[in-house]
């Protein structure tokens, strides 16, 4: 029997497993499909909320801690697995920001580099980008990670760790508790027992926990994205305008995202979203009109009230823990939120105050 059983093989689940294994714990991770193939694969990989000054303190604390953790995490995974998560720290250009003064005030309060820049600055950084208005904002410290490669590296590392058992294509259909403490889960590969259970099911977390009569206010929010196959270095850093972004990869692939759709668990793509994303991208980078769209896809974000994740033990099931509800910021918040949960699991001093994230009765839905 494992010390810990983790449900969900996205970045949250895999980072949790990695940290527990680093601490010498025996971990089993179960994933109903393939690890890292849902929202962790579908996102853009910007290591910051899109407009960080528009979030409350709870999200900001996790974001700041995670941002500092990504460079060393990416280097570690490259050295251990030979797979490069392609962490790039080339900054972000914000175009057409209507609350620039609020953004600058936020940056001064936190000591975060952010400055107002003009057309010449933008042109020098990104000659192919079209300005919107006469000023923009520049955040030089922002980084991005190639999330499919991050997930691949995490899986490779966990596979090589003797303390970790990975079970893919292993759907969880229920919990074993017999009206007492939860002792394990029922899966498509048979029952699995563990001392403690951790639910990292992303948009599916609420569906799992309803079996324990827990009403977790996490819902799927669809986001569609596209990629262009473009000449290398057509754009070199993340550019954001009116909530849509372009993210360059090292091989010339350009990601453009994303839509926000309340469509349940539907992951189909459509022509209207494609046209909207193309229009947004080509308004930022007109040269993309001559480049082919290589791919279109959709993922499901785990939406939650105010985008604040649930991290901690369930009130009526003290050996069942949850780490879900990161909304648009799963990749952004993953290092901090997993570290915070592992601190609680192992009785360590938490990296930040865990109180805002606890799945207390007040934060859960009452029916």
Structure in words:
By secondary structure, the protein is of the alpha/beta class. It folds into three domains: 2-54 and 148-217 and 305-363, FAD/NAD(P)-binding domain; 96-140, no CATH class; 219-303, 2-Layer Sandwich (D-Amino Acid Oxidase, Chain A, domain 2). It has nine helices and 16 strands. Strands 1, 2, 6, 7, 8, 9, 15 and 16 form an eight-stranded mixed beta sheet that branches. An eight-stranded mixed beta sheet has the order 4-5-3-11-12-13-10-14. A hairpin with a 2-residue loop joins strand 15 and strand 16. Helix 1 (11-22) packs parallel to helix 6 (147-159) and helix 3 packs across helix 6. The longest helix has 25 residues, at 57-81. The chain is globular. The two termini are 35 Å apart. The relative contact order is 0.19. The mean pLDDT is 95.
